[in-house]
Amino acid sequence: MKNETIKSDLKLFYDQWHAYQHVQDDYARRKGVSSSTIDVLAILQTIPEHCTQRFLVAHTLLPKQTINAVITSLLKQGYVDLTQSQSDRRVKEIRLTEAGRHHVSEMIDPLFAADYQTMSEMPEDERTLMLKSLAAYTQAFADRVDQLN
């Protein structure tokens, strides 16, 4: 019986995670962009200095090719500029242009506001429990996956 309960709980966990992701994907579609573009724009908004494609790959967990395609599209639309890094001439830093900052504020700010409002409406003890539980689950899962061949 316990085995079936664990399987059921795991399915519910996956379903909830996918439902959360689906909300973001649906929002991106309504805005006429990919969810990958939303992820990149959100990071560019919060990390305005020294953002590189390598940084975006590491922080979005998206493939390098996807990041490159998103940046190329944003560059063509005039939403980002690429400048040579002061520390490594081989690296290009990505920065939002004025048009890009305006675009991001119209697209990303409402999404962040919805997330913030949702989190703020949860009782503090539920938020704390949710975050502690997710952190503990993620660490335990990472430890077990590290042991796999």
What does this structure look like?
This protein has 149 residues and is mainly alpha-helical. It has a domain at 31-122: Winged helix-like DNA-binding domain superfamily/Winged helix DNA-binding domain (Arc Repressor Mutant, subunit A), CATH 1.10.10. Helices cover 73% and strands 7% of the residues. The protein has helices spanning 2-30, 35-46, 53-60, 64-76, 98-121, 124-146, and strands spanning 80-84, 92-96. It has a two-stranded antiparallel ribbon with strand order 1-2. A hairpin with a 7-residue loop joins strand 1 (80-84) and strand 2 (92-96). The longest helix has 29 residues, at 2-30. The radius of gyration is 19 Å and the shape is globular. The chain starts with a helix and ends with a helix. The model has no long low-confidence stretch (mean pLDDT 93).
